[in-house]
From TrEMBL, chain A:
The keyword Electron transport does not apply. This is Glutathione transport system permease protein GsiD. Residues 81-270 form the ABC transmembrane type-1 domain. InterPro entries: BP-dependent_transpt_permease, MetI-like, MetI-like_sf, OppC_N. Belongs to the binding-protein-dependent transport system permease family. It is a multi-pass membrane protein. GO terms for cellular component: plasma membrane.
Automatic annotation (TrEMBL), chain B:
This is Glutathione transport system permease protein GsiC. The chain crosses the membrane at residues 101-122, 134-158, 178-197, 231-258, 278-304. The keyword Magnesium does not apply. GO terms for cellular component: plasma membrane. It is a multi-pass membrane protein. PROSITE patterns: ABC_TM1. It is found in: Cell membrane. Keywords: Cell membrane, Membrane, Transmembrane, Transmembrane helix, Transport.
Length: 285, 312
């Protein structure tokens, strides 16, 4: 435990030394902070309507103005961050867990199972992401759960393939052969000995995957196929802003900037994490 | 090489087959009778039975699948529920608009990306290289549909430099309508390609044929432009082929934002009206496009670099 803590400490220090990494750390920190304490930060109820003060520009009362129903845009932006993370985190962790398991099985198991799983990964990857998302939404209807499912399904192959490659390189290393010769079970070899060697790389992938997920959620909500109104989502803000683009620019700005900031933050953080955790990965992309 | 090509295309066909079958079964497994959805709640039982038979939904599922593949091999993707027109015809009518947009986006972003990357690699670790690197990462991060919306807001609505809606008619007008959507889609690719070219360029610059060219006293400019760059842009080909899926996805959003005709607009409109045959046809065609372009990229890569033929 002591050792792993210091390792984690080293990683954080490494990231903070890199200017882009530090910037990413700060941006992500602010977004996570706002999402957790959204309830106390928002000046207004993000779904409370106030028709009398609709479509206002920025003012002291409404920092980013109001939308067509008089809802406070700033409050909706903050609450939207919560929705974005509510979709992104479970989806990314779910995809990582499933991809990791399948990938390790593919890399360690018999050849036919490997081929079958690879075909499965390749098939999912063969759908253009948005087209796949649209097909699923058309079939089972839009909701927060649908978005999480779509995002999870589309990113499983990425984690699976990386976990498989890592397992393949590890399976003939001496410490694994030694374990096997002592009669360790497959579950023990994979769970206790391989997992710690693979998880770091996947964590980096996950950090770099979060922006894609946030953008996809926002994109689906923008098309009206993601979270349902009146739930505040950055994509929903953009949707309202798009239809009112000639009346007020503030909805597009309020919905667009957080998405760009969030993607920037997580990308900086992910890149910097990658360089610190595993410089070799840099060439693989 | 021929062996590799056969195997690669065999794999693509297998993947397409699995993907299309999975989609077909998924559509059939969805709760709710598609006929009832199409006709609405007030349709008479006779009308429902008639449409069920017309769509072949009264057959067992394996037979439906066989019929579906039989039609597919003849280029028949089914019939539009509302207009009764052939889905193939509708999809292929919209496809050129999407391809035109994707092509324009690749063209400008690859040109600029390669130039930036080559410049950065020729002057590594200078201030310009550092700035280019930071800008590249930032561009990569910007989702196409957000860029599209902001571009629409700034350049079409406020400055009114470019049209906001449609695809235009006649060559110059069409080009005018392409600028903003192609800008939005291509922006993240500029940074990505620049970084890619820079990395592969730095690698190539250290190789012996470049060293030999230098030793012959060939001007540095010519060494970079002719001997190094020609090899360094190879990865770009692969990346664009593999990135076809992302390009298609971005094109969907750009088409919605700029109200352009194309596959994206077609599929969204069909989803809102629950026109399943068109949704299925569009997803199928775009998936096929993606699978083929990935395979082509692999082939080109294998043609240029023999080492790639043995890798999975």
């Amino acid at each position: 435990m002591e050792k792993s803590r210091s390792e984690l400490g080293q990683i954080v220090v490494g990231v903070a030394r890199d200017p882009l990494g530090l910037m990413g750390l700060i941006i992500v920190g602010v977004i996570v902070f706002c999402a957790i304490f959204a309830y106390w930060i928002v000046p207004y109820d993000p779904i409370a309507m106030d028709i009398k003060s609709r479509l206002q520009g920025p003012s002291a009362a409404h920092l980013l103005g109001t939308d067509q129903l008089g809802r406070d845009t700033f409050s909706r932006v903050i609450a939207g961050g919560q929705v974005a993370l509510k979709v992104a985190l479970p989806a990314v962790f779910g995809a990582m867990a499933i991809g990791l398991t399948l990938g390790m099985i593919a890399g360690y198991g018999p050849k036919w199972l490997d081929n079958l799983l690879m075909l499965f990964f390749d098939t999912i990857r063969s759908f253009p992401t948005v087209m796949f998302a649209l097909a699923v939404v058309a079939l089972i209807g839009p909701s927060l759960q649908t978005v999480v499912f779509v995002v999870m399904a589309t990113s499983i192959p990425t984690y699976g393939r990386v976990a498989r490659t890592q397992t393949l390189t590890l399976r003939n290393s001496e410490f694994i052969l030694a374990e096997r010769s002592m009669g360790a079970s497959m579950a023990r070899i994979l769970g206790v000995h391989m997992l710690p060697n693979i998880i770091g790389v996947l964590a980096v992938l996950a950090a770099m995957d979060i922006p894609t997920v946030i953008a996809l959620e926002a994109g689906l909500s923008f098309l009206g196929l993601g979270v349902k109104p009146p739930t505040p989502s950055w994509g929903a803000l953009l949707k309202d802003g798009y239809s009112l683009i000639r009346q007020t620019p503030w909805l597009v700005v309020g919905g667009g900037l957080p998405i760009i900031l969030a993607t920037l933050g997580f990308t900086f953080l992910g890149e910097s994490l990658r360089d610190v955790v595993d410089p070799k990965l840099r060439k693989q992309r | 090489m021929l062996n590799f090509a056969t195997r690669r295309f065999g794999l693509s066909l297998l993947i397409l087959f699995v993907a299309v079958t999975a989609m077909f079964l998924m559509i059939r497994a969805v709760p709710g009778d598609p006929v009832q959805i199409m006709l609405g709640p007030r349709a008479t039982p006779e009308l429902q039975a008639q449409l069920t038979a017309a769509l072949g939904l009264d057959q067992p599922i394996w037979k439906q699948l066989l019929i579906f593949y039989g039609n597919l091999l003849q280029g028949d993707l089914g019939t539009d529920v509302f207009s009764g027109r052939s889905v193939t015809e509708i999809v292929f009518q919209q496809l050129p608009f999407t391809l035109e947009l994707i092509f324009a986006s690749i063209l400008w972003s690859a040109t600029l990306g390669i130039a930036l990357g080559a410049y950065a690699a020729a002057h590594p670790n200078t201030l310009i290289d550092r700035i280019a690197a930071a800008v590249s990462v930032s561009f990569v991060a910007a989702p196409a549909f957000v860029v599209a919306l902001l571009a629409l807001l700034i350049f079409a609505v406020h400055l009114q430099w470019f049209p906001a809606i449609g695809a235009g008619e006649g060559f110059w007008d069409r080009l005018d309508h392409l600028v903003l959507p192609a800008f939005a889609i291509g922006l993240s690719w500029v940074g990505y390609i620049a970084r890619l070219v820079r990395a592969s360029m730095l690698e190539v610059m250290g190789e012996s044929h470049v060293r030999t060219a230098r030793a012959f006293g060939i001007a540095e400019r010519r060494v970079v432009m002719v001997y190094a760059l020609r090899i360094a842009i190879l990865p770009v080909v692969t990346v664009i082929g593999v990135g076809m899926g992302f390009l298609l996805s971005s094109a969907v959003f750009a088409e919605i934002v700029f109200a352009r005709p194309g596959l994206g607009k077609l599929v969204i409109d069909s989803i809102t009206t629950r026109n399943y045959p068109i949704v299925m046809g569009t997803v199928l065609v775009s998936t096929a496009l993606f699978v083929v372009s990935t395979a082509l990229a692999d082939l080109i890569n294998a043609l240029l670099d023999p080492r790639a033929r043995t890798a999975h």
